[in-house]
Design brief:
- The protein contains five helices and 15 strands.
- It is α+β, with helices and mostly antiparallel strands.
- It has one domain (8-271): Creatinase/methionine aminopeptidase superfamily (Creatine Amidinohydrolase, Alpha-Beta Complex), CATH 3.90.230.10.
- Strands 1, 2, 4 and 5 form a four-stranded antiparallel sheet that branches. Strands 3-12-11 form a three-stranded antiparallel sheet, with no helix packed on it. The chain has a three-stranded antiparallel sheet with strand order 6-10-13, covered by helices on one side.
- A hairpin with a 5-residue loop joins strand 4 (97-105) and strand 5 (111-119).
- Helix 3 runs antiparallel to helix 4 (151-164).
- It starts with 7 loop residues before the first helix and ends with a helix.
């Protein structure tokens, strides 16, 4: 499969899809509380997409070769779950951390993909720090995006920062191209060497979504065929944005009114 470069109409379609994906997370934020089940969060999200946005979930029924169909409108990955957690009837409790990963499809067929970490009640200092460092790691990758840069520059920046903070980077899952296809080329690794892999060119759209573990990088898959957890049961965190390569740099497409503020170092770089 080759990389697709979006024209002006495609970029407009992606801007809409990605903003709507971020607005699903805005909508869900007040409901992420102790005592609420992830199944209820999934129900709320599915209704919001269909009834308010006129979008639909890309994950429900999604079935790559060798996998069972994914049964929910979003992924909810708690604590030591790295990714692809399936919503269930277990209530959230104080101290949990959770990633919610949402992908919408617009009526025009464009996909918008993003995820955020949520802290349920008061969480441990270690959990808070992991969430914060993972957010910054994503942005260390984002700011490397510009025409002429390489995908390896993104992965290297994420890996160098995360490992410098004492954490490990999951290798088996990566970011991906996205457009009118959920997962397209290129693969966006969250580790690597600068100056390697595909060159970035205007019109590329892809996700940057590092999964960072407090312990070792090793993972395992649970029996449901989807849920991925840390092998050592350590906490894991993930953030995700969809990015457009512009003529001069990058545009983060998955921003909305409720998006967390950019880290201070990003504002400094932009100002410079």
């Amino acid at each position: 499969m080759t990389i697709t470069y979006k024209d002006a109409a495609g970029i407009a379609g992606m801007r809409t899809a990605c903003r709507l994906a971020s607005e699903v997370l805005d909508y869900l934020t007040p409901f992420v509380q102790p005592g609420v089940t992830t199944k209820e969060i999934d129900r709320l999200a599915g209704e919001y997409m269909l009834q308010v946005q006129n979008t639909r979930s890309a994950t429900i029924g999604y079935q790559p070769p060798g996998y069972p169909p994914f049964p929910a409108s979003l992924c909810t990955s708690l604590n030591h779950v790295v990714c692809h957690g399936i919503p269930n009837e277990k209530p959230l409790k104080k101290g949990d951390i959770m990633n919610i990963d949402v992908t919408v499809i617009t009526p025009e067929g464009w996909f918008g993909d993003n995820s955020r970490m949520y802290q349920i009640g008061e969480v441990s200092i270690a959990a808070k720090r992991l969430c914060a460092v993972t957010y910054d790691a994503m942005w260390h990758g984002i700011v490397k995006v510009k025409p002429g840069a390489r995908l390896g520059d993104i992965g290297h920046a994420i890996q160098k920062f995360a490992e410098g903070q004492g954490y490990s980077v999951v290798r088996e899952f990566c970011g991906h191209g996205i457009g009118k296809v959920f997962h397209e080329e290129p693969q966006v690794l969250h580790y690597g060497k600068p100056g390697t892999l595909d060159e970035l060119k205007p019109g590329m759209t892809f996700t940057i979504e590092p999964m960072i573990n407090a312990g070792r990088k090793d993972i395992k898959e649970l029996g449901d065929g989807w849920t991925i957890v840390t092998k050592d049961h350590s906490l894991s965190a993930q953030w995700e944005h969809t990015i457009l390569v512009t003529e001069t740099g990058y545009e983060v497409l998955t921003l909305s009114a409720g998006s967390p503020a950019k880290p201070g170092f990003v504002a400094d770089l932009v100002a410079a």
